[in-house]
Design goal:
- This protein is mainly α and 220 residues long.
- Among the domains are: 57 residues; 54 residues, no CATH class.
- Helices cover 49% and strands 9% of the residues.
- The protein has 7 helices and 6 strands; from the N terminus they run ββαβααβαααββα.
- The strands form 3 sheets. It has a two-stranded antiparallel ribbon with strand order 1-2. The protein has a two-stranded antiparallel sheet with strand order 3-4.
Length: 220
């Protein structure tokens, strides 16, 4: 069982199945998300393996990318530039797919948030939208109080879930090994950008040296 994707925009035309739109107030956001529901469920019954980007081999990715990128310095017109950009994008996707292992979707769905906490979240969101319109200090105080209440309830619920997980671990099966592997797993970080021996970690400093980095890494 997997959850549907989150989309920024949806365009439908001449669909043979009905599409139902529902406004959702159960999320902690400044706007109201819209749930788009259709009668099509085939893509969720047999979910495909998804890439595990936390285990991407970035050294192998760079090597394969250098082999796949077509180097053509003869870019005299717009069509040649568009073709070069398309080939570069295809090379990046192929190298990433080759260096990223697959992982199976979760078989066990995550436990839902308790109904009382969901009601508090809906009330907090409704009051916050009202406060954004009226700027009433009393409403702002109620929103802050509900935010503290929701945070406390969610923390207690997560602690209870973790305690139940620990109690379910046994040494006579694979559950203890799986939990130990999960806790001790070190995430694989993407290599930092560097130019002239200086690592770039700030987003605003990355666009300027980007052409130089590409030229040094991929120029032959």
């Amino acid at each position: 069982m997997v959850t549907p994707d989150v989309l920024d925009i949806v365009i439908t035309k001449n669909l043979s199945i009905p599409v139902h739109l529902t406004s959702c107030s159960g999320l902690s956001s400044h706007h109201l998300p819209v749930l788009i529901d259709t009668l099509c469920r085939s893509s969720f019954h047999n979910p495909r393996d998804s890439p595990d980007f936390s285990r991407t081999d970035w050294a192998s990715f760079q090597t394969q990318l250098e082999e796949l990128i077509p180097f053509d310095s003869e870019l005299h017109n717009e069509m040649a530039i568009d073709t070069c950009v398309e080939n570069f994008s295809d090379a990046v996707l192929k190298a990433l797919a080759a260096c990223t292992p697959k992982r199976r979707p979760r078989d066990d769905p995550r436990p839902p948030i308790p109904a009382g906490s969901q009601d508090a979240i809906r009330l907090k969101n409704r009051l916050r939208r009202h406060w954004q319109i009226t700027r009433d200090p009393a409403l702002k105080a109620d929103v802050n109080r509900l935010q503290r209440l929701v945070t406390r309830r969610l923390n207690d619920w997560r602690n209870d879930q973790w305690s139940a997980t620990l109690e379910s671990i046994h040494s006579d099966d694979q559950s203890l090994w799986r939990m130990t592997k999960r806790v001790m797993k070190v995430p694989t970080l993407s290599p930092p950008w560097s130019t002239q021996g200086v690592s770039l970690s700030q987003t605003l400093r990355k666009p300027k040296p980007l052409p130089t980095i590409w030229r040094l890494n991929f120029n032959r």
